[in-house]
Amino acid sequence: MKTVLITGCSSGFGLEIASYFLQRDWQVIATMRTPRSDLLPDSPRLRILPLDVTSDTSIAAAIAEAGPIDVLVNNAGIGALAAVEAQPMAQVREIFDTNTLGSIAMTQAVIPQMRQRGAGVIVNVTSSVTLRSLPLLAVYTASKAAVNAFTESVALELASVGVQARLVLPGRAPQTRFAENARPRMEGAIPDAYGALAAEVFSNFQDHSQITHASDVAEAVWRAATEAGAPMRIAAGEDAVEWMRSASA
Ligand SMILES: NC(=O)c1ccc[n+]([C@@H]2O[C@H](COP(=O)([O-])OP(=O)(O)OC[C@H]3O[C@@H](n4cnc5c(N)ncnc54)[C@H](OP(=O)(O)O)[C@@H]3O)[C@@H](O)[C@H]2O)c1
């Protein structure tokens, strides 16, 4: 029986990915900053471990406790809609620390065991905003584009030791806790000069004709984890698929 470890399982995509793999008889290690046992169904195949991807100590403890891992899903992430000039550097660092360095640190932590077994898959969840830029998301986009570049390069070195790395690029998913979790970071983030631009962005966000659902992301992660010939980049969600098609046209 194979084992998947997923970061950021307390809500949204991470929770759905954990549930999707559990339903398909995998052993699931659902990690959360604040572990909760009431979010996923009880199962002898489920373990919930504490993990903050910005802490080396927390990563080392989780990896030691987890044991052998066949698939790592770097899903934990944070964002903020903000004008760059109003975004404190502490926040810029926090976003990169979580999204970019967190994914790199977790990848580093699992490589030795995967290399020794000559098998394993690392799936990094980034975003369709790296395919088509949106205003007021420069720092978030940069943090995710760096993970795209990291993944595509590290995949080349890991292939030589039998390990794969893949990307899943979700579109906009208003049903997760992403926007709500971002809100405290957005205080004072839109100076008056960008008010009209922000109003336009927020108005476009009201259009729910093409959005991404957590189930789209779980399916894409499943493909990335289990399909031998899966592409390096898998778009997840109707909007992301459309953006990827137009980006490559
Ligand atoms: N929603 C979208 O529109 C969208 C679109 C494209 C890509 N994405 C990406 O998809 C991923 C999941 O987002 P989501 O929409 O499911 O948002 P979400 O509901 O806010 O989930 C994010 C998860 O990441 C966790 N997290 C945050 N900081 C962490 C840290 N330092 N260590 C460990 N876990 C941490 C959160 O845990 P806490 O509960 O402890 O905060 C939460 O479980 C993110 O990487 C996001 O950038 C989202």
Number of helices: 8
**CATH fold node name:** Rossmann fold
CATH architecture: 3-Layer(aba) Sandwich
- What would you report as the Rg, rounded to the nearest angstrom? 18 Å
The secondary-structure class comes to: alpha/beta
Report how far the terminal alpha carbons are from each other.
Answer: 40 Å
In CATH, the homologous superfamily goes by the name NAD(P)-binding Rossmann-like Domain
CATH top level is Alpha Beta
Helix amount:
40-55%
Low-confidence stretches: none
**Element order: H for helix, E for strand:** EHEEHEHEHEHHHEH
Would you tell me the overall average pLDDT? Answer: 98
Q: Which distinct ligands sit in these coordinates?
A: NADP nicotinamide-adenine-dinucleotide phosphate
Strand order within the widest sheet? 3-2-1-4-5-6-7
Largest sheet: 7 strands, parallel
What gross morphology would you assign?
globular
Q: How many strands? A: 7
Strand content: 5-15%
Total domain count: 1
